[in-house]
């Protein structure tokens, strides 16, 4: 699985535009999220992943990096190009 540290991700985020997939639950996302991030909770991923574009590269983030790692594994198995953001939103605080 491809991964990036939160610090490296955040430096890219400040300079470039790319697809961010936030797999935290809706309440967590509404409390704090990165501008431009798309919320698709891990609990709904198996039913909703087909709405994602296979031509996009997705940076996948959660609270600490655990749910995003599981989401990345699942999405990669479905043929999506994904990068797990290590440390997740906890690294922002």
Write down the Rg: 12 Å
How much of the polypeptide forms β-strand, as a percent range? Answer: 15-25%
Number of helical segments? 4
Read across the widest sheet, the strand sequence of neighbours is: 1-5-4-2-3
The mean pLDDT is 96
How many distinct domains? 1
- Share of helix among residues? 25-40%
Identify the CATH architecture: 3-Layer(aba) Sandwich
The count of β-strands is: 5
* Helix/sheet category: alpha/beta
Largest sheet: 5 strands, parallel
Report the span from N to C terminus: 25 Å
Poorly predicted spans: none
The top-level CATH class is Alpha Beta
CATH topology name, in short, is Oxidized Rhodanese, domain 1
Report what the structure shows.
This protein is an alpha/beta fold. The protein has one domain: Oxidized Rhodanese, domain 1 (3-Layer(aba) Sandwich). Helix content is 38%, strand content 22%. It is built from 4 helices and 5 strands; from the N terminus they run βαβαβαβαβ. α4 links the parallel β4 and β5. It is globular. The mean pLDDT is 96.
Structure characteristics:
single chain; 93 residues; alpha/beta; Oxidized Rhodanese, domain 1; 5-stranded parallel beta sheet; 5 strands
What order do the helices and strands come in, and which of them pair?
Blueprint: E1 3-5, H1 6-15, E2 19-22, H2 26-31, E3 38-39, H3 42-48, E4 57-61, H4 66-77, E5 81-86
Parallel strand pairs: 1-5, 2-3, 2-4, 4-5
Task: Give a concise summary.
By secondary structure, this protein is an alpha/beta fold. Helix content is 38%, strand content 22%.
């Amino acid at each position: 699985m491809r991964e990036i540290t939160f610090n490296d991700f955040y430096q890219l985020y400040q300079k470039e535009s790319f697809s961010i997939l936030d797999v935290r639950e809706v309440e967590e996302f509404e409390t704090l999220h990165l501008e431009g991030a798309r919320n698709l909770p891990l609990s709904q991923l198996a039913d909703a992943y087909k709405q994602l574009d296979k031509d996009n590269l997705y940076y996948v983030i959660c609270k600490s990096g655990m749910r995003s790692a599981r989401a990345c594994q699942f999405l990669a198995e479905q043929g999506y190009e994904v990068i797990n953001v290590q440390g997740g939103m906890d690294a922002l605080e």
